[in-house]
Amino acid sequence: MDYTRFEKARIIGARALQLAYGAPPLMEVPEGVSDPLKLAELEFNKGIIPIVVIKEKE
Asked: Cα(40)–Cα(58) distance, rounded to whole angstroms?
């Protein structure tokens, strides 16, 4: 699914917040990655973040 830049930012931001508050990562954390935002971006790029965007019909 294609997301707008705003949807992408919201999804990554929400997931980074979850990780910062102690949520377990959904993937093996690469060595040297400790920033929740970077980890959330990696999860987003792999397509494994369980957040869904529901778009209204125009």
From this structure: 30
Domain ranges of the chain: 5-46
Alpha carbon distance 10, 23 (integer Å):
17
Residue 58: pLDDT over 80? no
Class of domain 5-46: alpha beta
Around Cβ 46, how many Cβ atoms within 10 Å? 10
- Span 5-52, pLDDT tens digits: 999 999 999 999 999 999 999 999 999 999 999 999 999 999 999 888
Q: How far does the chain reach from its first CA to its final CA, in angstroms?
A: 18
* Cβ–Cβ under 8 Å, residues 9 and 40: no
Outline where DSSP puts E strands in the chain.
none
